[in-house]
Amino acid sequence: MSDINKVLVAGANGYIAMWVIRYLLEQGYSVRGTVRDELKMAVVVDSFPGHISKGSLEVVVAADATEQGAYDMAVRDVDAVIHAATPVLFSDGEPEEMIRPARDGTINLLNSILSCGTPVQRVILTSSVASIFRISLEQNEGQIEPRQPRKLTEDDWNEESLALCDMLGVNAPPLDKYMAGKIIAEKAARDFIKVHKDQITWDVVSLHPSWVFGGTEMIQPAVRPCTDPAHMNLSSKLWFDAVFTDTKAEHLGNSSGGWVDVRDVALAHVRALQRMEAGGLFRSTKSPSSGMTSVSVLMKDPTPHPRFNIQIIVDQIANKLKPTLPALLHPIAPPRPDILSQYFYEYSNDKARDILGIKFRTKEETVRDTFEEWAKYGI
């Protein structure tokens, strides 16, 4: 889609969004980013001072994305929108506390695009495999007998988390509340398109990364480094806590899910804007006019992967690479032979490779690059 010139990135100060902005700017796009307050604005502005001074990047405040009209000014005169503002939170409260920001933020953005008559051609939604994954696939992880991993695709829906939230309410697991927010936001976008299909002149691509790692220092001067583990985003802090002995959380031994390098996720967002064939249908439902495409964005290795077990990273990669890794302030956790390494499910990333042309980094590349970043900044 060569006629896209100006892109709105909602949630511009986020971990993925900052890399998206970097790649957009490097490829010559003009970018407008939204943030929730002046402090977050400063993070983005200070990370790209040259582009701010040239006018190729501007940052505006959209304080409350759940308020109707929050994005009305931000969407004006942009050719494409990337919605990366979904909160990553885990709450002990009612499920609606997680669901409402994800759902209403998405719908308010789509409403602003529709009502403001902007020249938008494509919208990218940063979703998650949370809308695909089903916890029942791991309920028998303790079994000894090997079995063929279940392959999940963009046509799968995680109905289990919705059912748990409906049944247990405030007592539902926090992770299921988060996943319910992702599912409902994506379904709300689909319903919005169906209702307004005669008015909409743009299409939507929904991207589904899983655990996102790497790029924590963001390579100055393009993006600010994170030099304090306490200030890392959720997935990077989880990774850090498991890899190092003195901060390792024992309960992370069986944490699982697909994983992908943040740089590949960011590139997928840019490619989804550029390739016409990325749009046009929502999951398996075709639309005669506009619609949605769902694309899983995950690593793919020769092994039955990607299932991310955080201790397997330590055992099979970090310790293996240890002799060639830079000196770090923290010792790498010792191997854990008791951790079950069988894969019970995997995600297909065929669309990301075939449609978006993503050549995913290997686990080893992400681990090595991350360690080099941490050594450089004394983490």
UniProtKB/TrEMBL annotation:
<protein>
    <recommendedName>
        <fullName>NAD-dependent epimerase/dehydratase domain-containing protein</fullName>
    </recommendedName>
</protein>
<dbReference type="InterPro" id="IPR050425">
    <property type="entry name" value="NAD(P)_dehydrat-like"/>
</dbReference>
<dbReference type="Pfam" id="PF01370">
    <property type="entry name" value="Epimerase"/>
</dbReference>
<comment type="similarity">
    <text>Belongs to the NAD(P)-dependent epimerase/dehydratase family. Dihydroflavonol-4-reductase subfamily.</text>
</comment>
<dbReference type="InterPro" id="IPR036291">
    <property type="entry name" value="NAD(P)-bd_dom_sf"/>
</dbReference>
<keyword id="KW-0560">Oxidoreductase</keyword>
<dbReference type="GO" id="GO:0016616">
    <property type="term" value="F:oxidoreductase activity, acting on the CH-OH group of donors, NAD or NADP as acceptor"/>
</dbReference>
<feature type="domain" description="NAD-dependent epimerase/dehydratase">
    <location>
        <begin position="7"/>
        <end position="279"/>
    </location>
</feature>
<dbReference type="InterPro" id="IPR001509">
    <property type="entry name" value="Epimerase_deHydtase"/>
</dbReference>
